[in-house]
């Protein structure tokens, strides 16, 4: 099993954002200490011949920088026990502006972190309060400056658009401010109203109103135009980078290949199984203390599902899905199953075909979920394919 990526989840936050549905809880020093010990034990259950060599490590959350500097050092020491950090090409940590101090950055540098993903979300103090973000625009300025002083220049900024009451002009202003930082990577996502969030409760009560679909679509096309005009390639639906600064870790996900995942609520893919860990931190800790992997659920991915995921995930990339690569991976052409689907999507101008590759158009990206659903394989089509292959002796 050639696993080249590791995801590690830190579920702690000093404040809970009104839109967030990730596995998280309020930071508590003693609970965080126990959690870090559990992470150490969980990693030991998977990594026997340590340290292993991987290309990418990604520490996400929650908010990893909610840990104090000593706890962050303890986390990175654990990671370095199981992973050869000298061989890691891209080592990313998520961080909140205004939350980390110089001691955090010194620890990051000492353990080889070379990429920081800043959860900025919007460059407007009033909107930041609305999202229950506790940083300010000035905090963003100071955090970027601090990272750059320590030569941590591979910085990505995350933004949300289609916020309640947000206008197109307001979003354009956020983009203008973001581009002014001159960073090598930006991510931007339309707000999703997720269950069990403050925004969801307000939405259900009719107290929260997003921009209409036409405005959200215009925000998306404006986002692409502004980024590309400033030399940032639109390499995935929501991600933009200067050449050479694409997120290698996320590209692993979109390539539909195995990766380790550790921590409460983390999702991993190993040995043909997708698994999700227990989400509540106390349940996660209890399971690990018993000497058991903290898996809530795991499911073997069938060949049919692997084929479907190859299209779902691969089409997120602007480079699309190569039939040549698909055929090498699965032993048959994707056109054997998807010819009618591709023809249909071509007519709707949601995909295009160039040489041996199928990729989404800009129009298709605005209807991404509808495009992806077209690549769900009808059972009778799949059974027919298996029957034909069986008669061929495949």
Label this structure with key terms.
pyruvate-formate lyase- activating enzyme, Arc Repressor Mutant, subunit A, three-stranded antiparallel sheet, 16 helices, 17 strands
Which helices and strands occur, and which strands form pairs?
Elements: E1 5-10, E2 12-13, E3 25-26, H1 29-46, E4 56-61, H2 69-82, E5 90-95, H3 102-110, E6 115-121, H4 125-130, H5 137-149, E7 155-161, H6 168-180, E8 185-190, H7 198-204, H8 213-229, E9 233-236, E10 239-241, H9 248-254, E11 260-262, E12 267-270, E13 273-277, H10 281-289, E14 295-300, H11 303-314, E15 321-322, H12 323-330, H13 335-347, E16 351-354, E17 357-360, H14 362-366, H15 368-373, H16 379-392
Parallel strand pairs: 1-4, 1-11, 2-3, 4-5, 5-6, 6-7, 7-8
Antiparallel strand pairs: 8-10, 9-10, 12-13, 13-14, 15-17, 16-17
């Amino acid at each position: 099993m050639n696993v080249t990526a590791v995801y590690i989840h830190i579920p702690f936050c000093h404040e809970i954002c009104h839109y967030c549905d990730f596995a998280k809880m309020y930071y508590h020093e003693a609970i965080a200490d126990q959690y870090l010990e559990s992470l150490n034990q969980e990693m030991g259950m998977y990594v026997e011949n340590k340290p292993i060599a991987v290309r990418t490590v990604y520490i996400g959350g929650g908010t990893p920088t909610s840990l104090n500097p000593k706890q962050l050092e303890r986390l990175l020491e654990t990671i370095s026990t199981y992973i050869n950090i000298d061989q890691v090409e891209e080592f990313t940590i998520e961080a909140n502006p205004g939350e980390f101090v110089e001691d955090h950055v010194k620890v990051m540098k000492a353990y080889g972190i070379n990429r920081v993903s800043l959860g900025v979300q919007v460059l407007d103090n009033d909107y930041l309060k609305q999202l229950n973000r506790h940083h300010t625009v000035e905090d963003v300025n100071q955090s970027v400056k601090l990272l750059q002083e320590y030569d941590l220049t591979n910085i990505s900024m995350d933004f949300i658009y289609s916020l309640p009451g947000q206008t197109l002009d307001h979003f354009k202003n956020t983009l203008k401010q973001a581009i002014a930082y001159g960073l090598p990577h930006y991510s931007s996502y339309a707000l999703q109203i997720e269950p069990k969030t403050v925004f969801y409760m307000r939405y259900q009560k009719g107290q929260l109103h997003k921009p209409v679909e036409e405005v959200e679509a215009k925000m998306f096309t404006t986002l692409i135009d502004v980024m590309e005009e400033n030399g940032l390639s639109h390499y995935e639906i929501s991600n933009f980078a200067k050449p050479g600064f694409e997120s290698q870790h996320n590209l692993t996900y979109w390539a539909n290949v195995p990766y380790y995942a550790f921590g409460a609520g983390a999702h991993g893919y190993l040995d043909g199984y997708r698994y999700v860990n227990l989400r509540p931190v106390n349940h996660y800790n209890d399971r690990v203390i018993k000497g058991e992997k903290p898996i809530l659920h795991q499911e073997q991915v069938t060949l049919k599902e692997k084929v479907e995921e190859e299209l779902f995930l691969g089409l997120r990339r602007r480079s699309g899905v190569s039939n040549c690569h698909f055929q090498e991976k699965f032993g048959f052409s994707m056109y054997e199953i998807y010819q009618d689907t591709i023809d249909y999507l071509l007519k709707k101008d949601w995909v295009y075909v160039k040489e041996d590759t199928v990729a989404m158009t800009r129009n298709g990206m605005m209807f991404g979920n509808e495009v992806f659903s077209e690549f769900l394989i009808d059972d009778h089509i799949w059974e027919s394919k298996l029957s034909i292959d069986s008669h061929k002796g495949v």
